[in-house]
TrEMBL record:
Protein topology in the membrane: Multi-pass membrane protein
InterPro entries per the UniProt record, alphabetical: MFS_trans_sf, POT_fam
GO molecular function: transmembrane transporter activity
Keyword terms, alphabetized: Membrane, Transmembrane, Transmembrane helix
Tagged with keyword Transmembrane: yes
CDD domains tied to this protein: MFS_NPF1_2
Compartment(s): Membrane
Transmembrane segments: 63-83, 95-115, 135-155, 185-204, 210-230, 326-346, 366-386, 407-426, 459-478, 490-515, 535-557
GO annotation, cellular component aspect: membrane
Protein's UniProt name: LATD/NIP
Xref: SUPFAM superfamilies: MFS general substrate transporter
Source organism (scientific name): Solanum verrucosum
Length: 586
């Protein structure tokens, strides 16, 4: 048995390497491209608020809103980029266009550090010109952000799928195992890239200045494009075949066009349009109004001679209707994670860290922008600990292969998120009181006699909360959809990040506007010693508690239809995911 397995692996490896197009030989080019893009773009984010407030004379609240909008646009464009790639231009062109767009954006950003004309005059030299940012100067920085967002929107969703295209070989029974191995290596490389971004790139910016700190990411994008294009002759360049999101819109449009149909009537199986080899004979009774989309009114007008739909915007298959119903089913549960994602993005947190002692030794000081590593490490350690130690133990008592149900994981994650926001509020209260007692109320740059280790517990809790809630949510979504649609869970999570960034921008704007009325100091003032960031943290805690109660209500409703996160909408989905849902979730 072992010899047969080794022979199969050897055959698969040789087959891939000897293939004219695709195969394992193309994977390094794709992984290097993705890794360099992540390393470059994620390396720009931690310190960007400092660059904007210092060189573009924005207050901290406005800068935080701008960065959150940048993040939201990048995530929305990831969904749009996947749609354009799948429907029109293909994955290779999408990755190439995205890489070039990111490079141009980073070059524009780097040029703002080279030429003083692209930045407003510093406040310290000419106080009357402190807010004198011209339209051209603002347009330059926004253009760089936009180009980087477009690049991320094309590269991130399409790069992993392009790699999977290179390994697709249906003749080999072991092909799925090879693709799973590729996913492992791909996500591992992404993780390493993010770690290097928030440590090495941030360190370079802190110690060698903005010109070098922004120049290195641009050089990394040059390397990314060069390596990707070198492998171009060897890629399998699959043609676009349409997007899942198009099918969702088609169901909505078809159901609206046939709104005159009475869905209360009993239709036989022949009245429903089904895809070839479909296991579904008729649509479910949930969201019955959508069943109109798959009802055949006139076979001669709506069907082609080969049995396919003449107009997919007027007649959809039972499977498409089921997918739309799954989408509507997961929306309430999906919405419960947004507030947790909002709480992760605490505004002005980097200013807090700049005021405390970050020295590990007398010579080495941790960059303020690198403390996000604590969240990443706690998330990684918890996932490994849960999967290897807790799951086998909990499975003995619960009988579930994942230890506890997705609902339980999500709930525990939300509760830990609440504890993390409480800790952040308490820590900021202690930090602010120390600053005022030391006479630093008007000196936000003063370093307090307070260790940065005070911030470690809350950052670690955020990591564990994300590991539990987000991974549990992805696992729940996977249990509803068949394996062929596994990318849908990632798309929903990406869209959740975009919505969370938009809510964060709105929340910061509203709080800053309300608390600064009447000449009062804003809670989110750039001088955090005068502001009240602790009040903002308590507000976030209150919103997270409300969100937790909303989650409990959604659980009560959802569990009545989908016990333990499983669904009967696609009976084959549970069997497909039983062996690998934990891997995909992680």
């Amino acid at each position: 048995m072992g010899n047969n397995t080794e022979q199969e692996e050897e055959f698969l490896l040789n087959h891939s390497q000897n293939s004219t197009k695709g195969g394992l030989k193309t994977i390094p080019f794709i992984i290097v491209n993705e890794s360099c893009e992540r390393l470059a773009s994620f390396g720009l984010q931690p310190n960007m608020i400092i660059y904007i407030t210092k060189f573009y004379n924005m207050d901290a609240a406005r800068a935080s809103v701008l960065i959150n909008l940048w993040s939201a646009i990048s995530n929305v464009l990831s969904i749009l980029g996947a749609f354009i790639s799948d429907s029109y231009i293909g994955r290779f062109r999408a990755v190439a266009i995205g890489s070039i767009s990111s490079l141009i954006g980073m070059l524009v950003l780097w040029l703002t550090t080279i030429f003083p004309q692209l930045r407003p005059l510093p406040c310290g030299q000419y106080q009357h010109d402190c807010n004198g940012t011209t339209v051209a100067q603002l347009a330059t920085i926004l253009c760089s952000f936009g180009l980087i967002s477009i690049g991320a929107g094309f590269v991130r969703p399409c790069s992993i799928a392009l790699g999977a295209d290179q390994l697709e070989n249906k003749e080999n029974l072991d092909n799925e195992r090879l693709i799973d191995s590729y996913f492992n290596w791909f996500y591992a490389s992404v993780g390493v890239s993010i770690v290097l971004a928030v440590t090495v790139i941030v360190y370079i910016q802190d110690h060698f200045g903005w010109q070098v700190g922004f120049g290195v990411p641009a050089l990394l994008m040059v390397l990314s494009i060069s390596v990707f294009l070198i492998g171009s002759p060897h890629y399998i360049k699959a043609k676009p075949e349409g997007s899942l999101f198009t099918g969702l819109f088609q169901v909505a449009v078809a159901a609206f066009r046939k709104r005159h149909i009475n869905v209360q009537l009993n239709y036989n199986d022949d009245c429903y349009y089904r895809a070839p080899e479909s296991m579904l004979l008729e649509p479910s009774t949930e969201f019955r109004c959508l069943n109109r989309a798959c009802i055949i009114e006139d076979p001669h007008m709506e069907l082609k001679p080969d049995g396919k739909a003449s107009d997919p915007w007027s007649l959809c298959s039972v499977e498409q209707v089921k997918i739309m119903k799954c989408f509507l089913t997961v929306l309430p549960m999906w919405s419960t994670c947004i507030m947790l994602l909002v709480s992760f993005s605490q505004p002005l947190s980097i200013y807090q860290l700049l005021t405390v002692d970050r020295h590990i030794t007398h010579q080495f000081e941790i960059p303020a922008g690198s403390f996000g590593m604590i969240t990443v490490l706690s998330l990684t350690i918890w996932i490994a600990f849960y999967d290897r130690a807790l799951v086998p133990l909990l499975s003995r008592y619960t009988g579930l292969p994942t230890g506890i149900s997705p609902f339980s994981r999500m709930g525990i994650g939300l509760f830990l998120g609440i504890l993390a926001t409480v800790l952040s509020a308490i820590t900021e209260t202690i930090r602010r009181n120390k600053a005022i007692n030391a006479g630093f109320e008007d000196d936000p740059n003063a370093v307090l006699n307070m260790s940065s280790m005070w911030f470690v517990p809350q950052l670690a809790l955020y990591g564990v909360a994300e590991a539990l809630n987000v991974v549990g949510q992805i696992e729940f979504i996977y249990s509803l959809f068949p394996k062929t649609m596994s990318s849908f869970a990632a798309a929903l999570y990406t869209f959740g990040l975009a919505v969370a960034s938009l809510i964060n921008s709105l929340l910061v704007s509203v709080v800053d506007s309300i608390t600064s009325t009447g000449g009062n100091t804003s809670w989110l003032a750039t001088n955090i010693n005068r502001g009240h960031l602790d009040y903002y943290c308590w507000l976030m805690t209150f919103l997270c508690v409300i969100n937790f109660l909303y989650f409990l209500a959604v659980c009560r409703f959802t569990d009545q239809h989908h016990h333990d996160g499983r669904s009967s909408l696609f009976p084959e989905a549970e069997e497909e995911h039983s062996s690998n849902k934990r891997f995909h979730g992680a």
